[in-house]
Each structure stands twice: as C-alpha cells, then as structure tokens.
Amino acid sequence: MDKQYIEELYERNVDRMYKICFIFFKGNKSNIEDAIQSIFVKVMEKNIVFDSLEHEKAWFIVATNNYCKNKVKHWWNKNVELNFDVLEENKIDQTLLEVLNLPDKYKIPIYMHYYEGYSCNEIAKMLKTKENTVYSYLHRGRLLLKDMIEGDLNE
User: Fold this and answer.
1) Structural domain boundaries enclosing 120
2) Fewer C-beta within 10 Å: the chain N or C terminus?
C-alpha cells in the first residue's frame, strides 16, 4: 500500500474512529490513539482494499467498534473514569457525552444512527443482529437519554 492511500484513508476515517473510541474509552487519549493506530496497522498488514467509500466507512466503524469492545473487557479499562480535561481540547459534542452514560448495547447503535446517518437495517447488518433489535436499542437509548437530560435540567 502506498503512503498516499493510507493518508487518504486516515483523513476520511480518523474523526469517526475517534468518536467511537471516545465513547468506549471515556476520553482516555492514550487508549484512543492506540486503538486507531492498531486498526490502521491491521489495514496495512492485510492490504485491505475497499469496494467503495461506503464499504470503507462501514468497515472502519465495525472494526473500531469490535476493537474497542474487546479492549474494554479488560479489567483495567473497566475502572477508568471519564477524563473531562480532554473535552475542551477535542471539542467533543455535549450530546455525545450523554451517550457515554448509556449502557454499552445502546452506545454504538445510537452513534451510528444519529451521528453517521445509517438506517436500522444497515446497522443490523454491520452489528450482525436483527433489525428489530436495533429499533429496540434506539428506542430504549432515546428514553434513557431523555431521562438523563431531564434529570440534569431538574438538578
């Protein structure tokens, strides 16, 4: 793979990957950077070629999601607190921060649907689950977000 191709892949996908990693790693910059680097190393080692820009986008979302899920299972990452210092530095969307507080099964479907614009059918295929499950996750996730936001307003 040539350097130019990798740089273009990086530029097209790094922001999206960063947001997904941010959700899982609660703003831990070193974990986020390690994840992004590891995924790009995999692309280079396996010489992955994408059929289209949409295929590329979907692959990076799923690969980032899977990588982060596996890393978060480690006991060390379960004890990491949200790093609020990173928020100012990276200008993370406040609504995205609310998504951090959702149970894990709701985080990625909500991100993929509302931030990336994927349909429930597309999300179901990428996450290898049923479309109705995605609808349920989105519905329950929205209800939880609503309760969290209303709770913040009442305090």
Assistant:
1) 93-155
2) C
